[in-house]
């Protein structure tokens, strides 16, 4: 038997073992949940329900990525001492999903994303600064945070191959529209006298800045029947960006939107020119054959 066949068989055996193990965990969790409800220990119900949801996300790369996109808008601190936020838990699920996918894969990754080396340089610079600082112990937390972000980035890069990028961006954009609507309510109620960030007090302006050029590309590439919805959605996102009153985010949001429009028009022109060239060559070949 060849080496490739052995690897393939081993991979299939791994999948079968993991699947049986996860089903076992699911039924055990379901039993514990029923028991908790039966003895009226309702304070444990939420935690028990959380376990199979996490397992489902870890074993399904698409769900892992989608839950991260969903929770990226929420920044509440769960544990003050660390501090541990909700998005950190979501990122941990992404890391576990990528680790499981890596263990079940029959090949190791052959390349790293280009931005990975930028993170390595940043981590190296922070590490050197920490070593020569007056209190190197205080640098453990920021270095650990950067390292955690690097691992999250690599995990998302791996899992993104299992997800259609357009679907992920579309989910992010429409979630941004929902949060933009939430942020606009207090802003309008105060007649524009407050800075409104909705449910994302630390990140709404940055997320809206990113979503605006994405929405512009969706609007330009949408069919006529769906163009109106994207136009209205972009207006809502831009209004929410203005409601944050974050000048730098507004400037960059408009700038990146103009760049996205320019790149999209340029791409359409290239495709159109290529199609015209192909049609001309086909017509010329047809005429040459007709002459013969």
Which regions have little confidence, pLDDT < 50, spanning 5+ residues? 1-13, 282-290
Please provide the ordered H/E string of secondary-structure elements: HHHEEHHHHHHH
Helical segment count: 10
Oligomer state of the chains in this structure: single chain
Strand-pairing-aware structural class? mainly alpha
Mean pLDDT: 79
The proportion of strand residues reads under 5%
Strand adjacency order, main sheet: 1-2
| N-to-C CA distance | 57 Å
Shape: globular
Could you characterize the architecture of this molecule?
Helix content is 78%, strand content 2%. It is built from 10 helices and 2 strands, in the order H-H-H-E-E-H-H-H-H-H-H-H. It has helices at residues 3-38, 45-59, 61-71, 86-104, 115-131, 140-159, 165-189, 204-221, 224-244, 247-291, and strands at 77-79, 84-85. Helix 2 packs across helix 4, helix 3 runs antiparallel to helix 4 (86-104) and helix 5 runs antiparallel to helix 6. Mean pLDDT is 79; it is low at 1-13 and 282-290.
Kindly list the characteristics that best describe this protein.
single chain; 292 residues; mainly alpha; 10 helices; 2 strands; disordered N terminus; disordered C terminus
